[in-house]
Amino acid sequence: MPAKVITITSGKGGVGKTTATANIAAALATSGAKVVCIDADIGLRNLDVVLGLENRIVYDLVDVVEGRCRLRQAMIRDKRLPELYLIPAAQTRDKSAVSPSDMVRLCDELRAEYEWILIDSPAGIERGFRNAIAPADMSIVITNPEVSAVRDADRIIGLIEAEEKGPARLIINRIKPEMVKKGDMLSAEDVLELLAIELLGLIPEDEEVIISTNRGVPVALDGKSRAGQAFRNIASRLRGEKVPFLELEDQSGILSQIGRFLRRGGG
Amino acid sequence: MARIIDRILNRQTNSAYQAKERMKLLLVHDRTNLSAKVLEDLKDELIGVISRHVEIDEKAVRIEISQQGREQRLIADIPLKTPTRRRLG
């Protein structure tokens, strides 16, 4: 089965690209799929530390591109999830060390053997973003319900469409239902209406994300965490399953109504 | 009745409502690269061109950007002065 290459991007930094990449990858790998994640944030690598694999890096993405090692040598295998691999970013180089065509070549080499290739894009709209998006079959834009993140998400959605890597699908991260209820946070419906793209997932604000990141264990592996459940739902939707969205809204919210309707229909 | 008015007023002062209204305008400008000033200039020029061929009600001319999903459309609403209105005026 040939791989699907998915790039996770946001425009703005700090909205959860790396956390989302690590958790979607872990959730996909839990079901036995062969998954590779690639940290495309050269110079500011972090996917390794979020996945808890930082002590096992020998070679990185730039070593592969510049021919200092074979691709397999740069792939770190996760011991908890034997079908999950990481290709780490170089820490001492910058984005210009890799080109968009290098990324396409690298993914083409992986396509035959893996089912999912997830690329963690750097923030920004420059070279690093173009490297990350070049090999994508599908793009995921992640935002949170703040004006600056939504604005940058809109910009990046436009660029993805211009690169013909669309239509992008949306994840809204760090939703605080109590604030939404009080009218002090944009609701998922608001953000969805503003950005006008297909919704892939809603992630509630959850302290477990910080705790699990401290430990280097993706929260998607924690059966009790709400955010973990949201990431597992995203993985299911990527596999083509119909999963209702988590009920994070005020009871009158459209999404929660759809959610209740789907749950009723699905039993 | 008072409660309904309160709710409407509250809705317009709550920060999420303000954020959404600001974002609607901002995103249109980001996507189209058209500022309010450019739209105003465009309106004046359109009035100039069209007035050379047909009499229009200049004060009622409206130029707006409408949205459908991620598509933007420039909508010009230009009322013509009808013969009856001319006679009255």
Write the layout of secondary structure elements.
The complex is a heterodimer of chains A (about 270) and B (about 90).
Chain A: E1 4-9, H1 17-30, E2 35-39, H2 47-51, H3 61-65, E3 76-77, E4 84-87, H4 100-111, E5 116-120, H5 127-133, E6 138-143, H6 147-162, E7 169-175, H7 177-181, H8 188-195, E8 198-204, H9 207-215, H10 226-238, H11 254-266
Parallel strand pairs in A: 1-5, 1-6, 2-4, 2-5, 6-7, 7-8
Antiparallel strand pairs in A: 3-4
Helix pairs in contact in A: 1-10, 4-5
Chain B: H1 2-13, H2 15-32, H3 36-51, E1 62-68, E2 71-77, H4 83-88
Antiparallel strand pairs in B: 1-2
Question: Which pair has the most extensive contact?
Answer: A-B, 20 and 18 residues
Describe the strand arrangement of the main beta sheet of chain A, using strand numbers.
3-4-2-5-1-6-7-8
Main sheet makeup of chain A:
8 strands, mixed
Largest beta sheet: strand ordering of chain B: 1-2
Provide the residue-averaged pLDDT of chain A: 93
Biggest pleated-sheet summary of chain B: 2 strands, antiparallel
- The average pLDDT value of chain B, as a whole number, equals 85
Strand content of chain B: 15-25%
Radius of gyration of chain A: 18 Å
What coarse outline of chain B follows from CA principal-axis ratios?
extended
Overall number of strands of chain A:
8
CATH class of chain A: Alpha Beta
Low-confidence stretches of chain B: none
Tally the structural domains of chain B.
Answer: 2
- Helical proportion of chain B, percent range: 55-70%
Shape field of chain A: globular
Helix content bin of chain A? 40-55%
The amount of beta strand of chain A, in percent, is 15-25%
> Count the helices of chain A. How many?
11
